[in-house]
Amino acid sequence: MGLLDLFMVASVPVMKVLLICGLGSFLALDHIDILGESARKQINNVVFFVFNPALVSSNLAQTITLENIVSLWFMPVNILLTFILGLFFGWVLGKITKAPQHLKGLVIGSCAAGNLGNLPLILVPAICREKGSPFGAPDSCHMYGMAYVSLSMAIGAIYLWSIVYNIVRVSSTKSYEVINVKNESSDEETSKSLQEQLIDELDLEGTSAMDDANVSLLSCAKTDEQGKVFILDKIKKQIYSFFRNINLKAILAPSTTAAIVGFIVGLVPPIQRLMIGASAPLHVVQDSALLLGEAAIPIVTLIVGANLLRGLRGSGVQLTVILGIIAIRYVFLPLIGVLVIRGAIHLGFVHADPLYQFVLLLQYALPPAMNIGTITQLFGSGQSECSVILLWTYSVASVSLTLWSTYFMWLVAKS
């Protein structure tokens, strides 16, 4: 199959996404107000608690078995690599552009977390249905493609809420601390010495702790043993603070819980025989979950379009930051992803299913996750800047996804 044919196969699903997103933006206009802020909030709740879990559990349950679960072990590793690479590039971008403190977490998160849920849920089934798709029969392609995408969405949610959530939280907290310090020390103590800052951080108990710390710092009389104890205490406090502040409720989101249920149904033969298949006694439960899950894709696409409308209002985010995020997500990460997946195939870490390889490659070329906007709203930091970043990155994604999808399909088809 030629590149032009593959380009047409890849472009049609992206055009469908753009059309539905455009409709969502139109319905969110102030004089239309069908998808206003309150309506989006309510629909998002339905999608989050009902449609997405049904989609994830039903697709995993009917495709995941004891035989093929071993072959999927590389997907969690691959997604973690996308996050680690994105974190590194985002940190470098923040240093180069000198992004404000309250935006550093947003910049790093936008580079690290791709939209592993909504867009693949739309693109992969649409590509499967297109004539000339390199992934075989449409029904088989759709069934296995949805399983791969559902697993990707569940794993991505865990990483997003355990890594990016805490990065944005720390960034927001530090920005608030800087503001408070500036307000409290307008006339006095404008420049604390390094010794005083270290004493403040020690937070030792007792009335004479501050004096003791000052004396020890000035005289440098601390013993090696005391220094080691201090370092160990600091490490313990950091570990405790990390686990205490992890949003376990967000990590164990409905989609993640639904993925666990789907795994149990697919991997436990008695339960699988009870629910999966036309002759199964409880197949109506699986059929109902599939029916609910099918509603997730068009509704989510409408909500994406409605949310992007907020970015048109603009904000003070630097142009270099936006261009840097676009370059990282649509140039650097996909190029590295090709090298990673080709290397994994060569080493035998990834099996020979072209659709599976395509999904792994696609995970490197996606725009930032929409839930980053939700995270910034939780901490009240960078909401308008996030809307602008999402608007421009998703606008460029219409071209980038088409080109990369074409190349990825050509790559897996010839291998």
Structure description:
This is Protein PIN-LIKES 3-like isoform X1. Belongs to the auxin efflux carrier (TC 2.A.69.2) family. It is found in: Endoplasmic reticulum membrane. One of its GO terms (cellular component) is endoplasmic reticulum membrane. It comes from Coffea arabica (Arabian coffee). The protein is mainly alpha-helical and 415 residues long. It folds into two domains: 3-178 and 250-414, Up-down Bundle (Na+/H+ antiporter like fold), CATH 1.20.1530; 196-244, no CATH class. It is 76% helix and 0% strand. The chain is built from 18 helices and no strands. The protein has helices at residues 3-27, 37-63, 74-97, 101-112, 118-129, 138-184, 194-202, 209-219, 224-245, 248-251, 254-267, 269-275, 283-294, 296-308, 319-346, 354-362, 371-379, 383-414. α4 (101-112) packs antiparallel against α6 and α5 (118-129) packs across α14 (296-308). The two termini are 13 Å apart. The model is unreliable at 201-210 and 213-222 (pLDDT under 50).
From the spread of the alpha carbons, the general shape counts as globular
**How many H/I helical runs?**
18
Major sheet characteristics: none
Total domain modules: 2
CATH topology of the largest domain: Na+/H+ antiporter like fold
H/E element string? HHHHHHHHHHHHHHHHHH
List keywords for this structure.
single chain, Na+/H+ antiporter like fold, 2 domains, 76% helix
Topology overview:
Layout: H1 3-27, H2 37-63, H3 74-97, H4 101-112, H5 118-129, H6 138-184, H7 194-202, H8 209-219, H9 224-245, H10 248-251, H11 254-267, H12 269-275, H13 283-294, H14 296-308, H15 319-346, H16 354-362, H17 371-379, H18 383-414
Protein name: Protein PIN-LIKES 3-like isoform X1
Membrane topology: Multi-pass membrane protein
Pfam families: Mem_trans
